[in-house]
Amino acid sequence: MVSLNGHVARKRFGQNFLQDTGMIRKIVRSIAPSGKDHMVEIGPGMGAITELLLEENSKLDVIELDRDLIPMLRVKFFNYPDFTIHEADALKFDFAALRKTDEKLRVVGNLPYNISTPLIFHLLSFQGLIHDMHFMLQKEVVERLAAKPGTGQWGRLSVMAQYFCDVESLFLVPPECFTPRPKVESAIVRMTPKQQPTQQALNEKVLGDTLRLAFAQRRKTLRNNMKGQVSGEQLEALDLDPQRRPETLSLAEFVKLANFRAELIGQQD
């Protein structure tokens, strides 16, 4: 176990505390907070990024699950009246409850690998309330979020993230920037929700279900993965070759396929 200022990093929370001052400043510069922003930080940990965010912007809500860290954070930032700690699980947190006016939230966080994907999906359900999101994630997750069709990283997470957001992979954060030192590289990603999806799905739940089916077995063809849902003839009518593998389809093609399924489901109701 690694102790930092008397706190033992907890494996079950996936805790790796950012310690490199230069990297912390680089991350905050990439976020570029201003005094007008309503910032939200998920998992502030020991407050390394928190401190710089508060220097630039005093209005900050933080969500922390580890109750042992909360007293330290209260003491460290007691002189900031608009600093609020929420002892909560970010996976279940109602981010809409933070908005008191029409201002949009700017969300940042060093997300543990074990919750990063479900947490991103949870946040996407609030995408209309969010201006942008900056996350530190395992490098492979960032690669999946920012992937392009035709690559091994392109999958359900890529399509759903890019349906809702413009996604930019910014820069790597090496393991030596953390205590304890993780076994993997991290990276910073910027996700900016679109005001309106470029490709509009008739039913976003059907889109998510279509992606789940299509990527259920990546090595199999679209015909095999969509068997019982969309026939080979129907795929051809949509100008989709049934022999293609799912990672070759673009976002627009997945939306077209999902909209066809949504219309079929609507006809059956």
Average pLDDT works out at 90
The string of secondary-structure elements, in order, is: EEEHEHEHEEHEHHEEEHHHH
Query: Structural class, judged by helices and strands?
Result: alpha/beta
DSSP helix fraction: 25-40%
Secondary structure tally, helices = 10
C-alpha Rg (nearest Å): 21 Å
Gross geometry: elongated
CATH level 4 superfamily of the largest domain: Vaccinia Virus protein VP39
Trace the largest sheet across and list its strands: 6-5-4-7-8-11-9
Explain what you see.
The chain is of the alpha/beta class and 269 residues long. It has helices at residues 21-31, 48-56, 70-76, 113-124, 139-145, 156-164, 204-214, 222-225, 232-237, 251-268; strands at 3-4, 7-8, 17-18, 38-42, 60-64, 83-87, 105-110, 130-138, 165-173, 178-179, 186-193. Strands 6-5-4-7-8-11-9 form a seven-stranded mixed β-sheet, with helices on both faces. The chain has a two-stranded antiparallel sheet with strand order 1-2. Strand 7, helix 4 (113-124) and strand 8 form a beta-alpha-beta unit. Helix 1 (21-31) crosses helix 2 (48-56) and helix 4 packs parallel to helix 6.
